[in-house]
Amino acid sequence: MDVSGLVWAGTLVALTAVLLVDLLIIGRRPHEPSVRESSLWVGFYVGLALLFGAGVWLTSGASAAGQFYTGWLTEYSLSVDNLFVFVIIMARFGVPRQYQQKVLLVGIVLALVMRGGFIAAGAALITQFSWVFYIFGAFLIYTAVNLARQGEPDEDEFSENLLIRWSRKALPISKDYDGAKLTTQVAGRRLFTPMLIVMIAIGTTDLIFALDSIPAIFGITQEPYLVFTANVFALMGLRQLYFLLGGLLDRLIYLSYGLAVVLGFIGVKLVLEALADNNLPFINGGEHVGWAPHIPIWLSLLVIIGTLGIATAASLIKSSRDRRRELADARR
């Protein structure tokens, strides 16, 4: 793709405007959105992503559109996995439901900023050093194995990182929340509220997840414009999706295994691409590896959709059976 500076600027302005509207809505009326409101917003953002992909198809062809849709679906799936941790953080710190929207939106903005930096760094590395695909691929395979072993985290497994523990000790923190404010006045003394700790927890979580998601999407497309827009559209609507899914998150018990398969698949794909473009002297004498196959984007899309579909269906079937069994046991 040959993306001009004008297109980049127009895209950034349009996406920033959408986020600002979202921020103004929350700022004027903090509340817990209804299922209908959340559904409408999620549908709007998904429709916006589909429409954007259609625009990419018309201007740059089916291949570029396929890369965008595959990257967006992968990042969207990984973002849903983020929600499990967000739920744990909200519960651990007792964030009132009506203020959780603001926390989530701040987390999304932080994620966009961090991922933008990672995308720029990743694109520069790939341009200069093709062997970085070996590192990306190995990291994704390692992440996939860990995810398959550990499954989704629960509240008992959540541990505060070093930055959160330092903030608790070093900063004057009030015991209670003061709305969605980060600071409050207590007995004439200015203190930070627990909301600041929540923001730090969300921000550091975003950083950790960015380390997984950016190599994953570079395994699908190396076009920075598509990498960036796929990430933005995946994060948009995540706040409303959090409230829409609600208790359904607990029922997606096999999602982590599905994501592990997806990450492992993309990791293998990256390693194969690195072998096909190999120039490291200690691998095959510095020559390209001819037997390394190229995995087309349509096959990647089918694998990702199929894997996530099977994982979701299996999760809902299993949770439905467990619920029926619990009801039957309760009646005895």
From TrEMBL:
A Pfam match is TerC
| Chain segments annotated as coiled-coil in the UniProt record | none
Against InterPro entries, the record matches this protein to: Integral_membrane_TerC, Integral_membrane_TerC_rswitch
Q: Which GO terms describe its cellular component?
A: membrane
- Tell me how this protein sits in the membrane: Multi-pass membrane protein
Q: Highest taxon of the source? A: Bacteria
What does the UniProt entry say about where the protein is found?
Membrane
> Keywords on this record?
Membrane, Transmembrane, Transmembrane helix
Membrane spanning residue stretches: 6-27, 39-60, 72-91, 103-125, 131-148, 191-218, 224-245, 252-275, 295-317
Keyword Lipid metabolism carried by entry: no
Its family remark reads: Belongs to the TerC family.
* PANTHER family associated with the record: MEMBRANE BOUND PREDICTED REDOX MODULATOR (PTHR30238), THYLAKOID MEMBRANE PROTEIN TERC, CHLOROPLASTIC (PTHR30238:SF0)
- For this entry, the protein name equals Tellurium resistance protein TerC
- Species annotation: Micromonospora arida
Classification lineage: Bacteria, Bacillati, Actinomycetota, Actinomycetes, Micromonosporales
